[in-house]
Design goal:
Number of helices: 14
Distance between the termini: 19 Å
Strand order of the largest sheet: 5-4-13-14-15-12-16
Largest sheet: 7 strands, mixed
Helix content: 25-40%
Radius of gyration: 21 Å
Strand content: 25-35%
Number of strands: 18
Length: about 400
């Protein structure tokens, strides 16, 4: 991969402390960079639904030395049951048959626990700024001048946006989100609610045409994760900044349905942890401009229909840091980052179309076709996932990668 740059203490600002940001900070610090991590939240965000680490990403966390802790946190969902519109069972599958994952290899971990483990790997070595964010960027030949929301001004050699699908860093460096945003014709609401059905280590997926309701119990607990997903050809722009409008829209979309849906809608109305958004991807012709680059969802969000958001974030962080370590000039590093990763990203983003068809059929005909396939013994919903998850042979960067 070329000789590792030995210039001491190049400075990098990383924006975002969810998954990609801490992973990138870990690798950059290990390669000798001086790293500052800024996060707009006042503290590390706990809670959240379980997320997956699959394929190549498992090797990344092994090289980070955190795989044993992640295996301890693995929730081990045993089955996903599919229900028809009346709530009657259609089929029960192993989760790997849905994701295309590999049993005994891939991981499923509550988002907050993954974030805490990654944070623990960097907290003593990285300058971390909570309750702050980037207000302005000025990219020039000598570095990037940054003004923080809190008023501080600093100059960094590089700035990396790891701040999610609605990235502030991307908007400052690349302009508005719209040219890069691929809306997948669905919206969703996620929240927690009481576990009235006594579910444990399992999920229930209910479907009507263009509507999906999910109850997900990763552990034996008195609360479950609930998701209400619905087809909507146009994004609900009027609801983005209005929580009351979000709740009204979700309730309207699920009005008149049976099974547990009315109870879920009522719980959504009262929820204090509601998360509402559109289902979408970020697709960009380039992930860098000047001395600013993007990683994870900020650059190539694949959507939850792909199930690969966290895995792409971890792999992307590893590759970006390795390329920066292997090249003295950031232009060469950013080029290597894209050359190494782009086909892997595109292959995993393509999983979203298959995932949408299997998990959220749009029409009565699509739903009938999906249900017929589920009733076949040894049915699966993902035929391409496993190959895509492991499509990248992970590069090595000058022997730094084995703990």
């Amino acid at each position: 991969m070329g000789a590792k740059n030995t210039t001491p203490r190049r400075t990098v600002l990383v924006s975002g402390a969810s998954i990609a940001g801490p992973a990138l900070a870990y690798w950059l610090r290990r390669y000798g960079f001086a790293v500052t991590l800024v996060e707009k939240a006042a503290a590390l965000r706990g809670g959240g639904y379980p997320i997956d680490i699959r394929g190549t990403a498992v090797e990344v966390v092994r090289r980070m030395g955190v795989l044993p802790r992640l295996r301890d946190a693995h929730v081990g969902i045993r089955r996903i049951s599919f229900l028809d519109e009346q709530g009657d069972p259609i089929a029960t599958l192993r989760p790997e048959a849905i994701s295309g994952g590999e049993e005994g290899h891939d991981l499923e971990i509550p988002r907050g626990e993954l974030a805490e483990i990654l944070y623990g790997a960097i907290r003593d070595d990285v300058d971390i700024l909570f309750n702050d964010s980037i207000a302005t960027l000025h990219d020039h030949d000598g570095g990037v001048d940054v003004t923080f929301r809190g008023g501080t001004r600093r100059t960094f050699d590089l700035v990396i946006g790891a701040d999610g699908i609605h990235s502030r860093t991307r908007s400052l460096a690349f302009g508005p989100e719209e040219p890069y945003h691929r809306y997948l014709d669905h919206c969703f609401a996620g929240f927690t609610m009481p576990n009235h059905l006594g579910l444990a280590h399992e999920g229930l997926t209910w479907n009507a045409p263009g509507r999906t309701a999910v109850l997900y119990a990763p552990r034996d607990d008195d609360r479950v994760h609930a998701f209400l997903n619905f087809l909507r050809p146009e994004p609900p722009f009027d609801a983005f900044r209005d929580p009351a409008a979000q709740r009204d829209l979700v309730a309207e979309m699920f009005s008149g349905y049976g099974w547990e849906v009315p109870r879920m809608v009522a719980a959504m109305r009262d929820s204090d942890d509601l998360f509402f958004d559109v289902v979408s991807q970020i697709r960009m012709p380039r992930w860098s401009t000047g001395r600013v680059a993007l990683v994870g969802d900020a650059a190539y969000a694949p959507s939850f229909f792909s199930g690969q958001g966290s895995s792409l974030a971890l792999v992307g962080a590893y590759v970006l840091a390795g390329e920066l370590a292997a090249h003295a000039h950031h232009e060469d590093a950013f080029e290597g980052y894209e050359r190494t990763l782009r086909s892997f990203v595109e292959r995993n983003q393509a999983l979203a179309d298959e995932g949408s068809a299997g998990l959220s059929p749009r029409t009565a005909e699509d739903l009938a076709r999906r249900d017929k396939a589920l009733r076949i013994p040894a049915a699966t919903l993902s035929s391409a996932g496993r190959d895509a998850h492991s499509a990248l042979s992970l590069p090595g960067y000058d022997g730094f990668d084995a703990p």
